[in-house]
Every structure is written in structure tokens, then in C-alpha cells.
Design a protein that fits this description.
By secondary structure, the protein is mainly beta. The protein is built from 6 helices and 57 strands.
Length: about 750
Amino acid sequence: MHRALAAAATAAVGITVLAAAVASASQPNANKSASGGASQSSHIRTGAVSRFNVGAAHSPKLEHLLSADAATAPRAATVRPASLPAAASTLQGIDVASFQHPGGAPIGWSAVAAAGYKFAFIKVTEGSYYGNPYYAADAAGAKAAGMLAAPYVFAIPNYSGGALQADYALDHANYAPDGQMLAPILDAEYDPYAGSDGTPSGSACYGLTPAQMVAWIGAFTTEIHRRTGQSPVIYTTSQWWTTCTGDTTNFSSDPLWIASPSTSGPTLPAGWTDWTYWQYSNRATLPAVPTAFDTSYLSSTALELAAPASQSDQAGSSASLVVHSLDGGTTPPSPIYSETGLQQAGLQIGSSSTDPSSGDVSGTLPGSATSFPVSVTATDGALHATQGFSWYVHSTASLAPVSSQRGSVATPVRFRVQATDGLSGCTLRFSATGLPRGLSINSCGIISGWPASSSSNTVQVQVTDSSGVALATTSFPWRIARASGSGPTGHIRLYRGGKCLTERSATNIAIETCSPALSERWTIAPDGTVRTHGQCLAAKKPASSTAPAALALISCTRGQRWQLGSNAVLKNLSDGRCLADTGTRNGVRAVAAVCQAKPNATGSASTPSASQQWTLPAGPLTSGIAGNCASSVRGASDPVGTVTLRQCRRSAQQSWIIEPDGAISSGGKCLAPAGGRTAPGTPLRLVHCVKGAASQVWQLSGGPIGVQLVSPAAGLCAADPGDSGRAGTKLVIGPCVAGDAGISWRVS
């Protein structure tokens, strides 16, 4: 289905937190099953907001609306029921969340498919704080049973940006075309937390105006399309869409999944003249599903084709690929398949002998290395759907030998294992075992990350193609040494009182008026240890879980790590406590205390206690692409304040401070997107610091070594565009994609 990208800009709404601690508990007003059983939803807390609905499929209000009608399992209908509205096909699907797994009980997906259900929509995330722990198993189980599947995202627009929630969902879903995965889905519906998230009780729109909501949805859909090439499906109700978007028509080219309890067909929002999926009930039951569940029809005017993965196969081997579709046009479904690109390569496509809705690609692949684009179209009368992919035909694959590798803790790694298969580019699939902790390999053979501990490893890398058979392997040793003890050196300055951390003795770490005394000189090492006079700062074992821990200096061979977080909080990674003072008088002891912060209305950000905010010595922002740092050095034609990537060297132009107010400063200027803009690709600038300016606030997410610098106003991250690693590249704000070395930074 063709989609014109929405022109809406990214909304500057919400503040970003990428993860939250999960608490296993029930919430009395969470969704109930149709049979009246207790909620199986666990909940998490973001600040003062109890996110009781994370395990539920939809909001309590929407589930109440859907409970008006009972659903009937399709039972593999081949004759159209007389009572079925003409707009609906006989094909039905199921949507589930962790609620459908009480006590960890599994869903019997083979039995679900045998009952006649053809597709499964599975909740993958909520906001940017919750990932469904059952998603991966449910998606795999549904596909193994022959169903098509799709992840859906329960949007929380007042928590973080649309692009960020899109990336968070795609990363958690590990989304990739595979021939059975349908387009991702945005679930835009009633605020389940109204009354506790800073919005009035009973309100639906998360405190956003229609213009802000349209911009938020635009940012989400644009990012989904950018990363997947698919038009995301929008799930909503007509009432919510009218109230919260002002009946916008900006997204009319996106497929619609409409929730509407009715026996005669759904009521559509403005902007759509047809629907693709109609959710009509939440009261369907099957013995294979532990609770009642939601059900939807596919439209009789919809033909959906799952995008195949790019194919990689040995030259001269037999092609084996099945293309899957959902065809609402006829009963039973009977699409006709056509292609471009296959016939020239000696291949053909025809209807599957076992499933008339699918197409089988067969034939013998060319006898020498080549690649070609393929386009497959399914047609049923006036209905049609097309998907494209690439086919790589490789010669015998081999891996180049890799020499012995050496590195050190907290020094970034990024290099590629080279494969030869007669083709250029990324055509094979890499995997590895034995990598040093903190490193990973992507499917194209790039090993990257931040080594987390000293070790000696034997790494084994293998490549496969679409067959899954190992084609070549190589192994090599890798030694990770301890981190260097050098780093930015100077005062650790308390936010309040003009005091600095000082060493009175190895067992008496206190605060004093800042001075040039050597006892106030601390070094922040790359691994996060805090050092002075050859020893490392450590927190002793506290008397209780709430008691503060005394500080002492110990041998750095046993050194504890500290992580600098948002708003200049320094957290001990051994016990999670924060560096804190116990008063502002000279000589009072510093401790590691339970972290104290006042959350905002949604819990997406918090203001730490001033007694736990510390300005560290100015130091580099080290890129995850080895050897590079953020710098204020600019080209002759670059605008004033341009921030670039440069080879790391200790200089004033590469010295940065994480400020207590959330700013990141260098040379008295503050980092911000140019002009306060929030669109992806906006250049970063050093500008005049304005306390409280939203465009100058940054959150540090991830770690413990490499972190993402997240702009809450934009919902995007400070980035080296395209992971260039080239000196002089202008830094920008860009999507926060997990595992991207170009948005990973060591702050010290």
C-alpha cells in the first residue's frame, strides 16, 4: 500500500526515560478478563505514576466499550455467514498482551490457528518504559503456527517523543521483514493514567492539544516508515480520533485498525473511507488462550502482503521461498501472484499447493555470484499488494583471518570481520560467541561496544545465509586489559554551598570550601572509577537498605565504579546509591545515600536533591566510534557554535561538563539543537546558556559506560550522522536506535 509521509513535525512533548524498574504486582482497576477473573497485569512505576495497565491489551475505557459484543471463533469458515457485514471478510485475528499469560501460562498458538485465526497482533511496548516479556515467544509461536504477526505499540504521548517510542518498540520487537511479519501498529487511544499523570481524571488525550497530538503521531509514523519501509497501521476509535486529533486527515494513507463494537460495521474517523482491520469484541475465548481476548476482522477490500526478508543463497542451489498474504477479497482466499525480477534469474512464483493464500517461489538459482531486485504482487480482482526485496546469490563464502585483538575496559570498539562471497556489501549473516562482555556483533559483521571488564576471550565468528547453514567460521583471541587510570582531573564540586569533595584521610571523605589543595583533586577514569593518590573511592556496606554508606579509599584493583547520570548525579554501580553530602559545613562527611529525586507528573524525568548533584572535572564526550570525540572546533565556513567530530585529544575544545540543570556545557556555552528545532538531522550548536531552556536539557540514558544523550524536547539523541567516524562531521540530533555506535558516548 502506497503511503505519502506525513508532513507533521516532531512534537516537543514529553521527556524521555528509556527504561523503568518492573514491579510484579496487580492493580485493582486494571483490565479484567471477560470471565471476571482478576487482572494478570504487572505494573511498573514511573515517578508517582503507577503504570497498572502495561500488561493489558488496551485501556480500561476501550475494553469496556468492546465488551458490549461477544465474539465467535471463526472455525476456519469457508462459507460467509449471512449476518456478517459486507465490509468484513471471513478472516479474523487475535490481539494479545502479557495479560493473556496469567502466572506465565503459555498461549497454544497451534490451537489458535486451528480455530481459524489468521493473524496475531501482539503488544510489544508501552511508552518508552515497558517491554512485553512475552512478545518474542508469542510472535514466534504465532508464525510457527502459520499465522501472520505484527507488533503494536501502546502510545503514551505525554511521556516521550513519537520517534523515540517508535525506535523503542522496533528495538524491543527486533523487527525485521521475514515473510510473516506485517507492518508495525500504533495504538492511539484513551489515556489509562488520566488523573495521576498530571492530566484531569477522565481526560483522553494525555494533556496534548490536537496540533501536538498530530505532530506526535507524525513523528512516530515517519520513523516507522524510515526504519522499516512499511506504512504503520493506526489503531484507534472514531471518538478518540475526533477528540484528540481534531479529525485530522494527515494519516489517511496509513492502514486503519478501528475499534468499534457493532454488529453492522464500524464507525470511521474523518480521513478514512475504509478500514483494514475491525476490532469488534474483547470477549472471544479458546481453551488454548488462558484469558478472554480481543478479535478483529480483515476488511473485504483489504489484501495485505507480508514483506519477505532479503534472500541470500548459494549459487546453483534451489530456491525456496514462501510469500504470505491476508486476502479479504474472496472466500476462501485465492490471490494470484506475479513478479518482476524472478523470471530473468530462472525462477518462478505460483500459488502454494498447501495454502492458496500464499505464493511459492521455486527454481534453480544462477550458477555464479549475482544479485537482483525482486518485486512480488498479489492480486485478487481489484485488490492488489506489492512488496520488494533483494536476492543475493553468492559464491563459496570465506572469512578473512582476524589477528589477535587487544583493548581496554571502556575504550570503544568498532571493527568489521571481513567476508568474501563474490558480492559486495552486506549479503551474509554474521553471529559470534565468546565476545568480551559489553561487545556485540551485528548481522553485517561489525563488532562494536564498550568492553566492560578485563578478560581473555576466544571469539568465534560464523556466517550463514538464508538456509541457516554455517558457511564459514574463524576464531581469534581477544584480551581486554584494565582501564587506564588517567582522565579528567580536578574538583568534584557540590551544587550547593560552594563546597568540594575532599580526602581528609582514607576513611574520612568530606566536603570543604573549594581550594587548590591536592586533597581536592580527583581523577575520573574511563571505567568510572573515581581516583586520588592512586586509590579509588568506594562505598562501604551500609547498616540497612535505607541507611547511607560511609565512603573510603581502597585499592583500585577492587575499585568501585560510579556512573554520571542526568542532572549531574553520581551513582555507585555496586549498590545504586548516590554520592551525597550530609550538610554544608566544612568537614561534614560525604556518603553514598539512597538516591533522592522529585519526579515530574509523568515520571519521565526528575529533579535530584541538591545534596546529590556534583559537577565533575570537564572531560571529553567520547564517541562509540573509536578515536573520536565531540569538539567545538569548526570548519572555516561552519556557523558559529557548530559542534563536530574530531580525533580525541585533551583540549579545551573537547572539554564538556554535565550541569546540574540538565545542560551540557563547553567553554561557557550550552549544547542545543540549532534554533531549538526538533526535527531529525538538526545540527547541534553551542549557544548562550539559558537556565531551564527546554532545548538545552539533556538526559543520559543507558550505560554503565556508553550512554545516549537524549534531547527530551525532540525525543532524539546526539548523533554522528551515518556513523561516519570522520573528522569534521557535524553532529546532529537523530533517532535513538539501540546498538548504534554513532549515538553512544562516554561521559567523563
